Amino acid sequence: MSKDKLWGGRFTQPTDKFVEEFTASIQFDKRLYHQDIRGSIAHARMLGKQGIIPMEDVEQIVHGLQQILQQIEAGEFDFSIALEDIHMNIEARLSAKIGEAGKRLHTGRSRNDQVALDIRLYLRDEIVEIATYLDLLIDALLGQAEANLDVIMPGFTHLQTAQPILFSHHLMAYVEMLKRDKGRMEDCLKRVNVLPLGAGALAGTTFPIDREYVAEQLNFPAITRNSLDSVSDRDFALEFLAASSILMMHLSRFSEELILWSTSEFRFIELSDGFCTGSSIMPQKKNPDVPELVRGKTGRVYGNLMALLTVMKSLPLAYNKDMQEDKEPLFDTIDTVKGSLKIFADMIREMRVNGETMRRAAGYGFSTATDVADYLVRKGLPFRDAHEVVGKAVAYCVENEMDITELSLAEWQLFSAKVDNDIFAAITVEASVNARNVPGGTARARVESEIRAAREGK
């Protein structure tokens, strides 16, 4: 038994074959190979620096690990389920390559703090990459906002026409959401970027290790302060999954709008053929499969968050085998988020905007009714009275199948004597948009200012 398992000295019977397969994690944690080797090299150098193992052994270990890294990246490394995980696979191969020196590598550490280190290193790199993908999507949105700065569309509440807005203003709403998503990722990174190695199995180690030296080698600005906490919590991973869930929720909302806007009923936009598919039976169909799939994958990310929350909710300190279930939800979320952001940025960049269709739709549904009320307020009528006047005018229009922009001056004066000829200029969709010249408003000058600020990283 002990010949097969690096931890098998206490056991007298081999592990059941099915148990071996059921408990192994190498099928999915092998993607941590680079981080595992990087962490082991830093650990070995620290052991040598502290005189815990001979420097000759350190040199052999580092050289052997670098060779293993090359083999893995060349596809020449056979991962073994019998060796359970990435840590044991690499350590066993190292010992087979360099002998006694390889067996000294695990001095002063446990797989518990080793895997905590690997996950933090991996997630740290992935968060930085996700932030880059977020920047690409923000840039694509800004490009469309700049190219369509004068396009007016109907703004909606309850999916009912509300008030005219600039299409660029609508896009900038998603820019704000994505900027907050990036901020959440960067904030999460602060808690990911802490070194757990040195915690041992749960209580630290009897060897005179130098944790700060390892942290310096691996570019960690801080070390964990409690050995139990170091190996037994995954709140940094949960925080990432929560931030990812919010990010995917934003992409899902945008996907829903793109799907609606690309229908023949809306015709606000047209997605490039490269991001759509056809129907197997209906030759006229152009299905927005990419935003539909992103919308669907949002539930997958939510599920990953709930899965890890459920794994962690009743675990006593310190490490438990349940925690092996942290990796698949984490890896799947990383892959899903990166893929969704990349394809979304490309899709938005190639999206065609039907400005004239949007402009016509912006004039429907009494979209400038609020502007009439504001007009009456400026004429001295209290807002609640103005609201009632406009409500009656709208009811009149509904009964006569017309829009408020079609009312004559005489008809307007049936509802209020304060209405004059200047009302017609006040209730165009262009006047409505540009009248909202307040910080955060949809007026062209305000939107231009926000685009510039976003370009400057503000």
TrEMBL record:
Show where the Fumarate lyase N-terminal domain sits: 9-303
Pfam families documented for this protein: ASL_C2 (PF14698), Lyase_1 (PF00206)
Q: Which residues form a coiled coil?
A: none
Pathway listed for it is:
Amino-acid biosynthesis; L-arginine biosynthesis; L-arginine from L-ornithine and carbamoyl phosphate: step 3/3
Catalyzed reactions per annotation: 2-(N(omega)-L-arginino)succinate = fumarate + L-arginine
- Domain Argininosuccinate lyase C-terminal: start-end pairs: 366-434
Tell me if Cell membrane is a UniProt keyword of this record.
no
Q: What is its main location?
A: cytoplasm
Q: Which UniProt keywords apply?
A: Amino-acid biosynthesis, Arginine biosynthesis, Cytoplasm, Lyase
GO MF entries: argininosuccinate lyase activity
Compartments where found: Cytoplasm
What's the EC number here?
4.3.2.1
Q: Into which EC class is this enzyme placed?
A: lyase
Taxonomically, the superkingdom here is Bacteria
What does the similarity note say?
A: Belongs to the lyase 1 family. Argininosuccinate lyase subfamily.
Q: Which PANTHER family match?
A: ARGININOSUCCINATE LYASE
Q: What is this protein called?
A: Argininosuccinate lyase
Q: Which organism is it from?
A: Oryzomonas sagensis
